[in-house]
Amino acid sequence: LVLVLDYGSQYTHLITRRIRQLSVLSLCISGTSPLSSISDLRPRAVVLSGGPHSVHTDAAPSFPDGFLRYAEENGVPVLGICYGMQLLVQKLGGVVAVGEKQEYGKMEIAVAADAGGSGLYGPDAAGGHQTVWMSHGDEVVRLPEGFNVVARSVQGSVAAIADPSRKFYGLQYHPEVTHSTQGMETLQHFLFDVCGVTADWKMQDVLEEEIRVINGMVGSDEHVICALSGGVDSTVAATLIHKAIGDRLHCVFVDNGLLRYKERERVMSTFERDLHLPVTCIDASEQFLSKLKGVKDPEMKRKIIGREFIAIFDDFAHELEQKLGKRPTFLVQGTLYPDVIESCPPPGSGRTHSHTIKSHHNVGGLPKDMKLKLIEPLKLLFKDEVRTLGSILNVPDSFLKRHPFPGPGLAVRVLGDVTEGNALEILRQVDEIFIQSIRDAGLYDSIWQAFAVFLPVQSVGVQGDQRTHSHVVVLRAITSEDGMTADWYYFDQKFLVDVVRKICNNVRGVNRVCQDITSKPPATVEWE
Ligand code: XMP
């Protein structure tokens, strides 16, 4: 296990993921965790992440007292990245100053000719130049005793340091970012040659271990319930649990009237035909839409939908209890690792902000009075790892590669009252044309998420020589790593011209189509 101590960098999760991509298990905990939380995990190496702080501020987060002694005495190599390196230097008696020249973005570094002996770079890298990703204001100006400079930026600042005898290392740049062209080689060299870890973390083993854990947790006469949303996480979680406990798993899929075009039919047929998962489908569209009638406030809409889900879920559990003669004991949640990492929040950055900006909810959120125990079989995995696990479990690609779809469904894509006119129906048709065009153009897998939005405004148009006063819809397509930040996707002009023509020709009630080209931030992905 390689432990990453988080100091609030936007790249911290990426470090953990890069290490896992090298088949080494990596976990991330807050950089201010107590020493026992670190030593209990018995890490083979510790990486100190970057972060937005300066070591000079009072609020600068730090590893616990005694950590470096623990690392040295137990032969645990420590690699500080950016802020992590500055912290290491300062704590060991070196000097970090506010840099004269701040370095941001791509930069060239020169690796010392004798760096091969330092342990941080392999012999191939020694004496060469590398392009790296820098993002720092402060810089190291005096090294602690025992350290050497093993690379400098072309501007002359310290880019990499090593104290091979204590196995303490530092990189001022971010090897985890793809712009650092040899970053992966550096991490690989550090892990395998310096730390001596073995590449033995495989998804097949994760699967077997999970099945063992689930079987140990769920007694042979106990039952488990799971709300399937049709998304990747809940589908993979349910398939995994089903493999472990068979038909003692009871899945429910709720049609809340806010699904996409033919979604209920498509999802149900895949569950039954491809996954052989028994699923109860509940049509609750009337129930949801009647509660949403006249509600315009986005937060209120989300809260109502969350509450209705819980009520339906509660009824489902109750019905099962009648049928089975006993209460289901467990509830499956498709929680992922990024949701459980307890991070050092960067001051004012709003990094783990989405929960405060919008009240997200997962289908099957926690009905407290149901007293169900939780099974979260994916809680140590990142999204891409869930996809790998899903493919081992034979979950079809059509599921694994689906774009994310929010729990509140089309309610956050019809601005204002979702029940007004035929907004939902118009949106379904526009969305279907847009997504199908993206698929036909072979772009679906290059786009992280794409969808249409219905605006509660009308504009004047002319169709077939007639004046029209019809609706405006918006197309949004983004690229992203994890939905926390996003860029808009750049379609070529012909694609857009064709899509707009198809929409206006086929969807009654739409005479104007816009494209949303705002990134996140400042916008969010969804419009509500
Ligand atoms: P935002 O709009 O917050 O969206 O930038 C980021 C990602 O999260 C999805 N999203 C949700 N997913 N329940 C979910 O399961 C929700 O309430 C929810 N709201 C937004 C959104 O589609 C995007 O992928």
From TrEMBL:
Top-rank EC class of the record's enzyme: ligase
Enzyme Commission numbers on file: 6.3.5.2
Catalytic reaction(s) noted: XMP + L-glutamine + ATP + H2O = GMP + L-glutamate + AMP + diphosphate + 2 H(+)
Keywords annotated in UniProt: ATP-binding, Glutamine amidotransferase, GMP biosynthesis, Ligase, Nucleotide-binding, Purine biosynthesis
Classification via Pfam families: GATase (PF00117), GMP_synt_C (PF00958), tRNA_Me_trans (PF03054)
Pathway: Purine metabolism; GMP biosynthesis; GMP from XMP (L-Gln route): step 1/1
PROSITE patterns cross-referenced by the UniProt entry: GATASE_TYPE_1, GMPS_ATP_PPASE
Gene Ontology terms, MF aspect: ATP binding; GMP synthase activity
Binding sites annotated in the UniProt record for ATP: S229, G230, G231, V232, D233, S234, T235
Cellular component GO terms, alphabetical: cytosol
Functional note: Catalyzes the conversion of xanthine monophosphate (XMP) to GMP in the presence of glutamine and ATP through an adenyl-XMP intermediate.
NCBIfam families reported in the protein's UniProt record: guaA_Cterm (TIGR00884), guaA_Nterm (TIGR00888), PRK00074.1 (NF000848)
Protein name in UniProt: GMP synthase [glutamine-hydrolyzing]
Lineage: Eukaryota, Viridiplantae, Streptophyta, Embryophyta, Tracheophyta
